[in-house]
Design a protein that fits this description.
941 residues, mainly beta, 22-stranded antiparallel barrel, 7-stranded mixed beta sheet, 12 helices, 54 strands, 44% strand, elongated
Length: 941
């Protein structure tokens, strides 16, 4: 199917490319200059209003173009950081003179994500945050994607140096499936597990034009999973941003956090190189762009081996087990999730251990001197001595994450290419290819080392001023990725006999002499046995076992997993504004198919007889939206409704309504209110996963997947033996109310205030339960009492509410001070002692402040300083439960533009102050980063 889709997309593009058009030509030329300096501006975008036809200015600010458009018409002239202008055209003109003024950086931004149409950000019907190209260039964070953390209402979690998860309005995870992230309209979620891959395989810094973030429900326009927000990342057009750009960045990362013999991160180098080239041909009808980006660093360390990994019921306990305790489960050590108990008092067990001891070459001398070489006699005597030990709970075996990883690479390589063709003055076609690959660490119910994984996209699109139609495919390959928890457990089970045998051998001289081991001897035996199966010993036993397990396949004796999955998606949108005057009406729809395959390592693809079949899931949606302006266009009322159907669930209807009133002479005061609904289908994991883990077998809870295990409708208990009446998973619904104000005071102070209330029904989460009965399925057999962790719907509503306040103040000489505050909390009528608990995973209070200047104090010099703080909060997940301490982060950068070299030099630092922190329970400790970058841009003014 993938091969056919590629052929279809290419055929469509070739057909569009061959389309010809011929109209009367209007010849235009002129120059665009800076209003203050009088210098020509390069790269200014000049477009015929209402069309895709246009050009950009050359290095001296001049431009020329031939327009196939009947006169009169308007030219829209725009450049980032300057106020846009329009020029009336009545015929050919060779002397168009335009002077652009620097814009008020607090207002004037245009967004599309809130309503799927262009509108001023001040007049958006919902809360929206935006990072434009200037904000991206001036972010103090080493990776521009991390700059999202400074936006109001945004909460960022990091499972790795290069894997960040964006969250808004609560219920966060490191793999946030409650938010949709689109790259040029393509969903960047991994098809198999549905989590957004952030910017590991995303758009490079040189090619990123803007990022728009809408917190809260967006299902009415964007469909399932646009539930807690949507992030739209838009790359640069090859028509509007031409020429060569090169970015070289280098620096160091430092961290000194190390506990209980853990290896500190120390100081490690980091690098980033990016190249972009774009060019137009055929009088700006054909354009292409190519991108390459490579970043390389050593990943932060998840090296907390002294904190106990608590569960849902023990997280509130004041005292927890410590290292050496038989019940201790280290947070970042794996394999110690299960106890190791040696029942020496059982004759059969003692005999088995004794046999292993006497067959060990180290016992040969004792066998000859004390037993005359009689192995049967020796086995009996040794076994009898071991039985006197009774049942011994040994220290759990566990392997540190730093010893399990084959490398600490945090690497990302991105390549992309796109070809654009303007079929007519109002229609543009494009075909694009994008591939990202890298190494990182992903944390879900377990921690996974992603090694050389790739995600590839193909997209064909046709768009005009009032419509678009696109089709794309994404596919993933796991590379050499593996599950670290499985790796630890399998290594533990392999080495447990050696561990127990070494412990028994250390006590054997005392036992054979008829004595009872002292406490000191027992402690020494425990220490020796533990060391014998840990990395660093001369026998290399642990290292070789870890390597063997790492390279094997999960559920077949190894820890590696397979992902050969694809996503097919097609969608369209049409705006009837050119046909209907009384209101703005748009319609749209989409079809999506998941085509999943893990070869039985993650999903339940086992159909018996050793065969594994691909899992395919289809869904579609249609929507319409109507907007009407009243009261001299000061009041805008918008209503939309959408219907979605997934083949495994009933159809969902999601309406939305909003109004915006613009007051003030310049419409500078905007009051908004909205009612929204949203839903999310259970993700692919929640539908079809079958994945043995330390918290129980992760089980997708669709009837087609889960019925065979007999857990549902009374077939399972909780840990206290109480029957749990599980129902098969259903979509989760959201009803949201929001009010807000966004306005400009005295052209200097921008205020943005919003408050929201959300109610979730059928809230989806997981709960550990225990099978009442034994059974058998194609995936294998299980005994009564086997732990499962199915996806379930909460039987009670879950409410969340929050407040956001943002203020920006423009001072003389281009200084801007910003500050924002966000509050979030949730409630649900669930007993604190219930084993099902809601994972809100969001700090209740967050503050963020910033100070920036762009060339106002010293010509060509700019800087920015950002500080953010968040309060302590409780993190809950299948991986573990624990409190995240409050922390603050200070970032800063200073940049200088060298106009003669068309380059910008930037010096920056992140997390200044030597204050390591982590964003979630089990995640790495994040230290400091210092970097220097040089960016060359052929179109730099």
């Amino acid at each position: 199917m993938m091969k056919h889709l590629r052929k279809l997309l290419f055929s469509i593009f070739v057909c569009l490319l061959s389309t010809a058009y011929a109209q009367a030509q209007v010849t235009l030329s002129g120059v665009v200059k800076d209003n203050k300096t009088g210098e020509g501006l390069v790269g200014v975008n000049i477009v015929v209003d209402g069309t895709v036809q246009g050009t950009t200015t050359k290095a001296d600010g001049s431009f020329s173009m031939s327009v196939s458009q009947p006169t009169p018409f308007k030219l829209k002239i725009s450049y980032i950081g300057y106020a846009s202008q329009t020029v009336d055209i009545t015929g050919s003109n060779s002397n168009i003179q335009v002077s652009l003024k620097e814009s008020n950086s607090l207002i004037g931004e245009v967004v599309v994500s809130a309503s799927r149409v262009e509108e001023k950000i001040l007049e958006s019907p919902v809360t929206i945050e935006k990072m434009d190209i200037i904000a991206i260039k001036n972010t103090a964070a080493p990776d521009f994607y991390d700059g999202l953390a400074n936006l109001k209402g945004v909460h960022v979690n990091k499972g790795s140096m290069n894997f960040a998860s964006i969250n808004t309005r609560g219920f966060a995870t490191i793999s946030n499936v409650r938010m949709v992230q689109l790259m040029d309209g393509m969903d960047n979620a991994a098809p198999l597990l549905n989590f957004p891959t952030g910017n590991v395989v995303g758009i490079s810094e040189l090619d990123m034009e803007s990022m728009e973030l809408v917190p809260g429900a967006a299902s009415a326009l964007y469909g399932p999973n646009a539930f807690n927000g949507i992030l739209m990342m838009n790359s640069k057009s090859p028509f509007e941003y031409q020429g060569l750009s090169v970015l070289v960045k280098g620096g160091v990362a430092t961290s000194n956090t190390a506990k209980d013999g853990a290896t500190a991160y120390g100081t490690q180098p980091l690098y980033n190189t990016s190249i972009r080239y774009a060019k137009s041909f055929l009088k700006d009808k054909l354009a292409f762009k190519v991108n390459f980006s490579l970043s390389q660093a050593q990943d932060w360390r998840s090296n907390d081996y002294v904190t106990h990994r608590t569960d849902v019921t023990t997280v509130r306990n004041e005292t927890q087990p410590t290292i050496g305790d038989p019940s201790f489960d280290g947070l970042n050590s794996y394999g110690d999730e299960v106890p190791i108990v040696a029942p020496f008092g059982t004759a059969s067990f003692a005999n088995t251990v004794a046999l292993g001891i006497i067959n060990n070459p180290a016992f040969a001398a004792t066998l000859a001197s004390q037993f005359g070489g009689n192995t049967a006699l020796a086995q009996g005597v040794v076994a009898n001595g071991l039985q006197s030990l009774g049942t011994v709970p040994l220290r759990r075996l566990g392997y540190k994450e730093e010893d399990m990883l084959e490398s600490f690479d945090a690497r990302s390589m991105k390549i992309s290419a796109a070809l654009h063709y303007r079929i007519t003055p109002k229609i543009e076609a494009s075909f694009s290819f994008r591939r990202g690959s890298g190494s990182s660490v992903y944390q879900g119910g377990e921690r996974y080392a992603l090694r050389d994984f790739t995600q590839t996209y193909y997209k064909a699109e046709v768009k005009g001023a009032n419509f678009f139609a696109r089709a794309y495919m994404s596919e993933t390959d796991d590379g050499d990725s593996y599950n670290m928890t499985a790796m630890g457990l399998l290594t533990t089970s392999t080495l447990a006999p050696t561990y127990i045998g070494t412990y028994a051998s250390a006590l054997l001289p005392t036992l054979l002499a008829g004595g009872t081991p002292t406490a000191e001897q027992v402690a020494a035996a425990q220490t020796a046995a533990y060391a014998a199966v840990q990395p660093g010993t001369s026998n290399g036993l642990a290292e070789s076992t870890l390597k063997t397990v790492r390279e094997g396949v999960f559920q077949r004796g190894g820890a590696g997993f397979i992902d050969n999955s694809r996503l097919y998606h097609a969608e369209f949108n049409y705006n009837f504004s050119d046909m209907i005057d009384f209101a703005e009406i748009q319609v749209g729809g989409n079809y999506r198919q998941y085509d999943l395959f893990s070869d039985g390592t993650v999903f339940n693809e086992n159909r018996g007889n050793g065969t594994f079949e691909r899992i395919k899931i289809g869904e579609f949606g249609v929507y319409t939206q109507v907007s009407k302006k009243l009261l001299k266009d000061r009041l805008k009322i918008t209503a939309s409704i959408r219907f979605d159907k997934n083949e495994n669930f009933d159809g969902q209807i999601t309406p939305r309504a909003s109004l915006v009133y613009s007051a003030g002479k310049e419409r500078e005061h905007n009051f908004r209110a909205s009612f929204q609904t949203g839903f999310r289908n259970p993700d692919t994991q929640a539908q079809f996963i079958y994945f043995p883990s330390t918290s129980g077998i992760l089980l997708g809870s669709t009837k087609a997947n889960a019925e065979q295990y007999g857990l549902f409708q009374g077939g399972a208990t909780d840990s206290k033996g109480n029957t749990v009446n599980l129902e098969f998973i259903q979509p989760e619904q959201l009803t949201a109310f929001e009010v807000g104000y966004k306005g400009l005071i005295a052209n200097k102070v921008l205020i943005d205030i919003n408050g929201y209330f959300n109610q979730y029904n059928n809230f989806m989460d997981q709960q550990t339960v225990f099978a009442k009965s034994a059974g058998t399925a194609p995936t294998g057999s299980w005994t009564a009492g086997t732990a499962f962790r199915p996806y379930i719907n909460s039987k009670v509503p879950v409410n969340s509410q929050g407040l956001g306040i943002g203020v920006s103040y423009k001072l003389p000489k281009n200084f801007i001070i910003t500050g924002n505050y966000s509050a979030a909390l949730f409630s649900a009528d669930i007993d604190p002692d219930d084993e099902f608990q809601i994972a809100f995973n969001t700090p209740g209070d967050r503050y963020k402040f910033g100070l920036s200047n762009r060339g106002g104090l010293v010509k060509n010099l700019g800087f920015s300083i950002n500080y953010r703080w968040q309060d302590r909060f409780l993190w809950r997940s299948a991986f573990g439960h624990g409190y995240i301490p409050a922390y603050g982060v200070l970032d800063a950068q200073v940049n200088y533009k060298i106009k003669s070299l068309k380059s910008i030099v930037k010096l920056g630092a992140s997390n200044i102050g030597n204050n390591d922190y982590r964003t979630s329970f089990g995640a790495p400790f994040i230290g400091q980063m210092y970097y220097l970058s040089i960016t060359f841009d052929q179109a730099l003014n």
